[in-house]
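Support request from a user on the community tier.

User writes: "When I paste my C-alpha cells into the form, the page sometimes reloads and wipes my input. The last time it worked, I copied everything first. Here is what I submitted, just in case something in the input itself triggers the reload:"
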C-alpha cells in the first residue's frame, strides 16, 4: 500500500491491534508514520509494543526519531530501552525481551499457576516458565505442561530437573541461533555473567536475526560491501537509491580490478613465450576458471561448516590435508579431460604436457586457497564469508596464470 494509505488503515484499527501491526511494518514506513502521528498516538503505540520489537524500531529509525521515541516512554520503559540498546550490536542482548514469567522453587504448583495467570498475559511466551532463586539466578526452566499436570500441593522444586540451556547477553546472535537450532527451543533464557536472569530470546526473533545474517553473508559471497549502508539495498532493491547500490558495489570491484592488473603484469612478463606459442593463450581462461571454481567449492564447504560450528580453527591442518587428496584427484580428472584438446589444439605433446600439468597444479592450489582463506579471515576476527567467490577466483587467476606460464616457459624453452 501507499504510505498514506498505511497511515489511514493503522488509525482505523482498534487500539489493541495498532502496536502489533505497526511492529510488522518496514522501518521506512514506520518512520514515516511516526512523523505524521501525534505524540499521544505514538506513545500509545510504542508503549504497547513488545520490548524486542521496540528495540528493533529504535535501531532502525534515525537518531532524531529514536530520541523522540525514547522521550515519550515512561521512566521504567525508558530505562529498559536504554539498557538493551547498551548491548553490543548483533549481541543477544539486543534481541532479548524482559517479558517472561518467573517463579520460585519453594512455591506450590497452585501458587505458581496463580502467578502465571496474573502475569502471563503480558509475557512474550508462557510455553516455558523460568525458576529463579531469591537473588534472581536462573536455576531451571519448566515446560508449562509439566506444571499443569502436577498436583496443586506439590512444590515447584519437586518437578525440576535442573537441566537447562542459557546464553549470556553479550554473546553473538549466531550463538543463540546455534543453540535454538541444536536443542529445538522455542525460547532461550538470557543471563548476565553471574547467571542472573535478564530476559529471553524467542524463536521468532531468532528467525529475523537468521534471515539478516544470511542476507549479510550473501552480500559477502558476492563481494558487495553492505556494512556502511545497511542491507536494505538487497532486500528492497526497487526502493533503494541508485547511489547506495553504487556505493555497495564499487569498493570490492575496484579492489578486484587492482588485483586483476597483477594478472596482466604476469602475462606481459611472459610475452616472448606467448609470442612464440600463441596457442597457449587459448587454454588460459579454462585453466584459471577451473581453479577458481574448485576454490569456490572448497570455500563454500568450509564457510558453512564454520558457521554451523562443525569444524573449529584447530582443524585447519587436517582439512588442508584432506583437501590436498581430494583436489589432487579432481586435478587428475580435469587434466585427463583437457589432455586430448591440449594435444589436438596445441599440435604437440609438449603443449599438451604443459596444459595437463598446469590444470592439475591449478586445481590443487585453487582448492587449498578456498580452504585456507576462511580460516585466515576467522583468525583475524573477520567473517569467513568475506572469503567470497570473486576474491577466490581473482586470486586463482593471479596464481594460476603465473603457474601456467611458468610451466610453459620451463618446459617449452
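"...and here is what came back when it finally went through:"
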Amino acid at each position: 500500500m501507499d504510505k498514506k494509505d498505511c497511515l489511514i488503515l493503522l488509525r482505523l484499527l482498534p487500539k489493541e491491534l495498532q502496536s502489533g501491526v505497526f511492529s510488522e511494518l518496514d522501518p521506512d514506513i514506520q518512520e514515516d508514520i511516526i512523523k505524521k502521528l501525534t505524540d499521544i498516538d505514538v506513545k500509545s503505540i510504542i508503549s504497547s509494543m513488545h520490548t524486542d520489537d521496540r528495540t528493533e524500531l529504535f535501531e532502525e529509525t534515525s537518531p532524531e526519531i529514536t530520541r523522540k521515541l525514547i522521550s515519550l516512554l515512561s521512566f521504567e520503559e525508558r530505562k529498559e530501552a536504554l539498557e538493551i540498546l547498551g548491548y553490543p550490536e548483533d549481541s543477544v542482548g539486543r534481541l532479548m525481551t524482559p517479558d517472561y514469567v518467573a517463579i520460585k522453587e519453594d512455591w506450590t504448583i497452585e501458587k505458581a499457576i496463580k502467578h502465571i495467570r496474573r502475569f502471563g498475559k503480558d509475557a512474550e511466551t508462557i510455553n516455558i516458565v523460568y525458576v529463579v532463586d531469591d537473588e534472581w539466578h536462573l536455576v531451571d526452566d519448566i515446560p508449562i505442561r509439566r506444571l499443569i499436570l502436577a498436583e496443586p500441593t506439590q512444590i515447584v522444586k519437586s518437578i525440576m530437573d535442573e537441566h537447562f540451556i542459557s546464553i549470556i547477553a553479550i554473546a553473538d546472535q549466531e550463538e543463540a541461533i546455534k543453540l535454538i537450532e541444536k536443542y529445538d527451543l522455542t525460547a532461550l533464557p538470557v543471563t548476565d555473567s553471574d547467571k542472573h536472569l535478564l530476559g529471553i530470546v524467542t524463536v521468532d526473533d531468532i528467525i529475523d536475526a537468521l534471515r539478516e545474517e544470511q542476507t549479510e553473508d550473501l552480500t559477502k559471497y558476492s563481494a558487495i560491501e553492505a556494512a556502511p549502508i545497511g542491507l536494505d539495498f538487497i532486500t528492497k532493491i526497487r526502493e533503494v537509491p541508485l547511489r547506495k547500490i553504487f556505493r555497495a558495489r564499487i569498493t570490492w570491484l575496484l579492489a578486484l580490478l587492482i588485483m586483476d592488473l597483477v594478472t596482466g603484469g604476469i602475462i606481459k612478463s611472459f610475452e616472448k613465450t606467448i609470442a612464440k606459442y600463441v596457442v597457449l593463450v587459448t587454454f588460459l581462461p579454462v585453466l584459471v576458471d577451473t581453479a577458481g571454481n574448485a576454490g569456490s567449492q572448497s570455500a563454500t564447504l568450509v564457510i558453512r561448516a564454520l558457521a554451523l560450528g562443525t569444524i573449529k580453527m584447530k582443524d585447519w591442518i587436517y582439512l588442508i590435508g584432506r583437501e590436498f587428496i581430494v583436489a589432487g584427484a579432481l586435478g587428475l580428472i580435469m587434466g585427463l579431460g583437457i589432455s586430448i584438446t591440449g594435444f589436438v589444439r596445441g599440435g604437440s605433446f609438449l603443449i599438451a604436457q604443459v596444459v595437463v600439468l598446469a590444470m592439475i597444479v591449478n586445481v590443487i592450489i585453487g582448492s587449498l586457497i578456498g580452504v585456507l582463506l576462511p580460516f585466515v579471515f576467522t583468525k583475524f576476527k573477520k567473517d569467513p564469508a568475506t572469503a567470497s567467490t570473486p576474491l577466490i577466483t581473482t586470486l586463482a587467476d593471479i596464481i594460476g596464470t603465473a603457474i601456467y606460464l611458468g610451466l610453459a616457459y620451463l618446459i617449452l624453452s
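Agent notes: The reload is a front-end session timeout and is unrelated to the input. The longest strand covers residues 138-143. The chain has a mean pLDDT of 86. Escalated to web team.
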